[in-house]
Amino acid sequence: MKNKPYYIAAVIVNWNGKDDTVRCLESLQKINLLGNTLSIIVVDNGSTNDSVSVIKKSFPKISVIVTGKNLGFTGGNNVGIRKALEKGADLIWLLNNDTLADKNVLSFTSVFDDPHVGACGSKIYFASGHEFHHDRYKESERGRVFWYAGGLVDWNNLYASHRGVDEVDHGQYDRIEETPFITGCSFVVRRDVVEKVGMLDDRYYLYLEDLDWNIRIQKAGWKTLYVPTSVVWHVNAGSSGRPGNPVHEYYFTRNRLLLGMSYASLRTKIALFREGMRFVVSGSPVRRKAVLDWLFGKFGIQYEPKKFN
Q: Nearest CA to 236 among 171, 166, 137, 163?
């Protein structure tokens, strides 16, 4: 049973995604607070359309911060995290703008009554009709197909993956448990964790920054949990495109090297370096640039994303 209410600050980054963001904010207006206080911070990350005016007009009581340029997933969220800390939030909830929240999404707060819990993540479904494999499911199964039900990390090959992805929910992942990887799509972190381990690492800009944060939180001694009673639906890759596009290819390639050289075993580091050198010799131009940028310490935004939806 919950022992106390929490002040939660939800941070939502918008980049030319006004329609997604408005739907996300509309869903948050309908949730049960469960005795908690919720403050919503929208960070507009350099939108070039009328996102800011539409969001402000639709939700005049919500805090909107305009960065004036695209700071990436890391930079945009860090702006919101700083504001959340200024507001005195107990918990900071990073939530993708292309999500819809279940009415009991804030049930995640109960796990923070344990002081050893540093962060947690929600159960995440594909939004109905946005599954990877559209023809695989019955109409009655749509909206209950897993996008994320806890995380998995393959340290030998340095890949983080989502447990349960593409499976229909039959209650198989309905237990609160520790997980090595919470996705940044819905990532809740305790205030004092941020104050100790820091915010997202801006060197990543986009992709794998959430895994880096998980690792730092765990190394500092806190648990990271998957909380299945907290549910959101995700319209996958709404602002950066699906896996395989050039933006994903560049940042995933570069950041995998950055992450691996920071945390992996010597054997994995050697394998990563060899793979990187193969990309330099015979890889695509995007991957070649990614490896060379890693090699010469060019981090942050080095490959300009474009709007895909």
A: 166
CB 259 within 8 A of CB 207: no
As a residue count, the chain comes to 309
Long-range contacts: 59-62, Cβ < 8 Å, 24+? 59/22, 59/25, 62/25
**Quick one: which of 3, 186, 7 has its CA closest to 89?**
7
Given a contact cutoff of 8 angstroms between Cβ atoms, the answer to whether 97 and 64 are in contact is no
Terminal C-alpha separation, the chain: 42
69-81 per-position pLDDT tens digit: 999 999 999 999 9
Q: What are the backbone dihedrals phi and psi of residue 87, each rounded to the nearest 5 degrees, phi first? A: -75, -10
pLDDT tens string 151-183: 999 998 889 999 999 999 999 999 999 999 999
Query: How many CB atoms are closer than 10 A to CB 209?
Result: 26
pTM of the model: 0.93
Query: What tokens were used for 258?
Result: 């950055």
Question: In terms of Cα–Cα distance, which of 67, 70, 77 is closest to 13?
Answer: 77
Render 55-80 in DSSP notation, one character per residue.
Answer: HHHH-TTSEEEE-SS--HHHHHHHHH
> In this structure, are residues 167 and 141 in contact, taking their beta carbons and an 8 Å threshold?
no
Going by C-alpha positions, the residue among 237, 202, 188, 201 that lies closest to residue 15 is 237
Q: How far apart are CA 14 and CA 56, in angstroms?
A: 12
